[in-house]
């Protein structure tokens, strides 16, 4: 394992443990018994975003060309159609199930076909 990655992983684990212990130390109020935990997690997530996730996102935007970014976005958008399909299935909406299913199949085959022939 990369030593740089290992040190970031340890830092991340340490921050998570620290945030959980801080949340246990804060007083609970009757209105919101989870307030201490929520504040600690918000602080941890905000720090993680500024230290790790934002630099990765900026590097991704700078390095990866726009057509590839659009393709990755389309890929994950198409995966979201599986959630729509499941939701329609659980709600007993056969028309919605069929629409989501065919939308997923057509986007997947047309998307892969377009991706293969662009090279």
UniProtKB/TrEMBL annotation:
Pfam families per UniProt: MlaA
Name of the protein in question: MlaA family lipoprotein
Keywords associated with the record: Lipoprotein, Signal
Keyword Cell membrane in record: no
Keyword Signal carried by entry: yes
Signal peptide region: 1-27
Family, per entry: Belongs to the MlaA family.
InterPro entries per record: MlaA (IPR007428)
């Amino acid at each position: 394992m990369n030593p740089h990655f290992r040190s970031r992983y340890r830092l991340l684990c340490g921050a998570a443990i620290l945030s959980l212990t801080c949340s246990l130390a804060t007083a609970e109020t009757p209105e919101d018994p989870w307030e201490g935990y929520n504040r600690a997690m918000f602080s941890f997530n905000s720090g993680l975003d500024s230290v790790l996730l934002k630099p990765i996102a900026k590097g991704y935007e700078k390095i990866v060309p726009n057509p590839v970014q659009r393709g990755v976005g389309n890929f994950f958008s198409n995966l979201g159609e599986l959630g729509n399909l499941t939701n329609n299935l659980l709600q007993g909406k056969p028309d919605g199930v069929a629409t989501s299913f065919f939308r997923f199949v057509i986007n997947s085959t047309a998307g892969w076909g377009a991706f293969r022939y662009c090279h």
